[in-house]
Amino acid sequence: MKKILLTLVSLALTATFSVAKESDADTKQDIAKHRAIAAAHEAAAKCRESGKDENSCNKELQAACKGLAIGKFCGMKHEH
Predict the structure, then answer these.
(1) Residues 49, 30, 35: CA angle, nearest 5 degrees
(2) What are the distances in angstroms from CA 49 to CA 1, 20, 21, 36, 61?
(3) Buried-most residue among 4, 32, 73, 77 (CB within 10 A)?
(4) What is the pLDDT of residues 44-80, one digit of tens each?
(5) Can you give the residue ranges of every domain in the chain?
(6) Rounded to 5 degrees, what are φ and ψ at 73?
(7) pTM over cut 0.90
């Protein structure tokens, strides 16, 4: 009984690690998305530096991040 239980646990752990590993293509795609989100946030910072109001810059950020991140602040919101 102990051998069967040990085998099942070992098999479950192996399956978990096999499923959790992402491919190189997925990793590269994830990196590209992070860079795109970072670029959108950098553009939002430059927008604010230029003197534009927060609402205008947030609208530009939302447009730049459409389809990239979750939420209307491109996956990131800080306190105000």
Answers:
(1) 20
(2) 68, 41, 41, 20, 14
(3) 73
(4) 999 999 999 999 999 999 999 888 888 877 876 655 5
(5) 35-69
(6) -110, 30
(7) no
CA pair distance 63, 78, nearest whole angstrom? 19
Tokens of 6: 């040990």
How many Å is the maximal CA-CA distance in the chain?
71
pLDDT tens digits along 2-39: 677 556 566 666 655 555 677 899 999 999 999 999 99
Q: How many helices (H) and strands (E) does the chain have?
A: 3, 0
The reported pLDDT for the residue numbered 1 is: 65
Helix (H, G, I), strand (E, B) or coil at 50: coil
Q: Are 33 and 68 in contact (CB under 8 A)?
A: yes
